[in-house]
Design brief:
single chain; mainly beta; Hypothetical Protein Tm1070, Chain: A; three-stranded antiparallel sheet; 45% strand
Length: 127
């Protein structure tokens, strides 16, 4: 097992490559550093879909000069986001956040592979 520290408040994006199949998961920790939850991280893709929750969502790029657009089902959008490899972007000012799967549906398009993840709970940090 390899651990990648993504920093306080998920401020570091990571690019993971492998020549064999692997499983990538994120594990949240509480303020004491104890594990709170884990979930699989899907592979990077050029089109992602999801529900905007009540916590901060982040996306990261795997290649330089990646152009990203975010569209919400309420008609709002953010376009022209340019990220380099390892850069991250907080998804804000698009859609309506809400808990329990009731937030806006999001479609995220990019011209190169990206990944996205959202905090699970306000007391949890991603690592």
């Amino acid at each position: 097992m390899v651990t990648v520290n993504t920093g306080t408040n998920n401020t570091v994006s990571s690019v993971i490559t492998s020549d064999a199949p692997i499983l990538v998961a994120h594990v949240g920790t509480d303020s004491a550093g104890l594990p709170m939850g884990a979930s699989m991280v899907p592979p990077a893709a050029t089109e992602l879909w999801g529900i905007l929750g009540s916590q901060t969502a982040w996306l990261g790029a795997s290649e330089d000069l990646t152009t990203v657009s975010i569209y919400a089902d309420d008609g709002t959008s953010v376009t022209g986001i340019v990220l380099n490899s390892g850069d991250h972007y907080a998804i804000q000012n698009v859609g309506v956040p809400s808990g329990q799967g009731m937030g806006s549906g999001l479609r995220i398009n990019a011209d190169k592979p990206i990944g996205a993840i959202e905090y699970d709970r306000s007391s949890e940090k991603l690592s």
